[in-house]
Design a protein that fits this description.
It comes from Oceanobacillus luteolus. This is DUF2846 domain-containing protein. The structure is a single chain. By secondary structure, the chain is mainly beta. The chain has one helix at 83-88, and strands spanning 2-6, 17-21, 24-29, 34-37, 42-50, 53-54, 58-62, 68-73, 96-100. The strands form two sheets. Strands 2, 3, 5, 6 and 7 form a five-stranded antiparallel sheet that branches.
Length: 103
């Protein structure tokens, strides 16, 4: 199972992030929400997207009955000062998706 926690950020506050696993959309979730999804053991690729922007892709292995945790957030801090840069040149790094030990 994967569990993704979306942290608060002022950018895209009202928009849902779409979860893409192995190049297939599997759901969406909003700010301060948690998304969980059961997946089969093996190798997978995960990323999030909104409109034409997305996070970097994360490749991971998961075992039977294992739970992997991820956090995500939109532009924050210094990045939030340059939204046009991130929706054009860096559109595949618009959101931060990271694997963590727990939530």
């Amino acid at each position: 199972m994967i569990v993704i926690k979306r942290e608060a950020a002022w950018t895209k506050k009202l928009r849902k992030y779409i979860v893409v696993l192995n190049d297939q959309e599997i759901g969406s979730f909003g700010e301060n929400e948690t998304f969980d999804y059961r997946i089969p053991p093996g190798s997978h690729t995960l990323y999030l997207k909104v409109d034409w922007c997305r996070s970097k892709k994360i490749q991971f292995e998961i075992q039977e009955n294992e739970v992997l945790y991820f956090t995500c957030r939109g532009l924050s801090g210094f990045q939030a000062l340059f939204p046009l840069w991130y929706i054009t040149v860096k559109r595949n790094d618009y959101m931060r998706l990271e694997q963590v030990d727990n939530l």
